[in-house]
Amino acid sequence: MQEKLTINYTNDLHSYFENWPKIVGYLKENKQKQKDAGETCWLVDIGDHVDRSRPIAEAFRGKANISLLNEAGYDFATIGNNEGITLDYDDLYHLYDEAEFRVAVANLHSQSEEDPSWMESSWVVETAGGVKVGMIGLTAPFPDFYNLIGWNVQDPIEVLKREIGPLRSSCDMVVLLSHLGIYADRDIAAAFPEIDVIVGGHTHHLLHEGEFVNQCLITTAGKQGFYLGEVEIIWDTEQGCIIDKRARAIPVSDLEDDADTAEHVAIYSENAAKAMHRPAVVLPDPMPCTPFEDSRAMDLLTDYLRRWTKADLAFLNAGVLLDSFPAGAISYMDIHRICPHPINPATVSLTGEALEQIVNAALQPDFVSFPLKGFGFRGKVIGKMIYSGLTFDTTGTEAKPVAVNLKIHGKPLDPNKLYTTAMADTFTFGSLLPNIKQAEGKKYFMPEMLRDLLLEAFQEIEK
């Protein structure tokens, strides 16, 4: 005799609710269909459902996301870095207080008090036929960020070494809810044969049919709700083992909307707009912005960033401002729309030699026009780099410009001196500017985001 377990999941929605009614329509219908057939179907979210670059998540600090997951009938979830490090401590601590589903995150704990009541490491839950399924959740570790806002995040591998044995011994199969990314998922599958299925997210990969590593099925379904994921596991009750497991990513474009969900999203959107259209500042003059040129708004923001962080100099890419500001009253919605990124200020200690290399790299046309994705950036291109406290002349050609005569507050750049340099935390990740990633002496500022500093810079000139 055989039993089928279906896991439908979403990952990395990033509060793109345009397709959410279609997703929920399928999830509700399929869950009822499996129930009518006497089978088990669980709905799971793998994190980054919240994204504060989107108005609904910003206005309600993720609480509306949880309500929408409740209404859809979700059963289980783990958290992503957008839930974890873009919300302040109290907002995350209470984010899932009203959740009607269980939340597993085994590698995150409060620094100062008991973990929130919703936070679990793992559990064992039975299917309709009595098969015991162990689930454990893990989120991407960003210790430099979590430590600043009151959380301890642990190495997921070390947590698995400690937790997987007891969990495996108490169940028939193990499913890992992983917001670690596909590369970590592959490593885990290779190292932990106890895990049968990894439902993944974080790196936005799309696996149309999943993949197998060490007999473990790995699956993930892209980003922003263009696909939803489905895993089917076939259990043989006589043999007492899994005899088949498969996965697919389902495109949602042709699915039918769930009418109630569409209505609720519209209501949340309207209420978010009302909350955020409050006036924030009055600008005496219009401020045109383009990613490829200097602008007064970028100069104000970059200069304020330098002063706010008490750095020697600062730089920001003009692509962080997505539109121009008109003269007159500017609302919180305007600030959020034009600077939506969940990006925090950072400082890095850089030598003068490294700074010169960074300035020259940022001058190159390919860098300026690069369509950056991820690392908190929600714009289209990096744009021109804007500086405060640093000046230089440009020689060379249009295709290969070269920075010369670099000065810090009027004094020649010393190649051997360390300078405290303020920037968007975006540049401390990845390989865009290797000198920054390789540097030590990094400091992050949280929970403030760039748009908070932008508003404060505008408020200075309003006075």
Automatic annotation (TrEMBL):
Residues 292-426 form the 5'-Nucleotidase C-terminal domain. GO terms for biological process: nucleotide catabolic process. GO terms for molecular function: hydrolase activity; nucleotide binding. Keywords: Hydrolase, Nucleotide-binding, Signal. CDD domains: MPP_UshA_N_like. InterPro entries: 5'-Nucleotdase_C, 5'-Nucleotdase_C_sf, 5_nucleotidase/apyrase, Calcineurin-like_PHP, Metallo-depent_PP-like, Pesterase_YunD. This is Metallophosphoesterase.
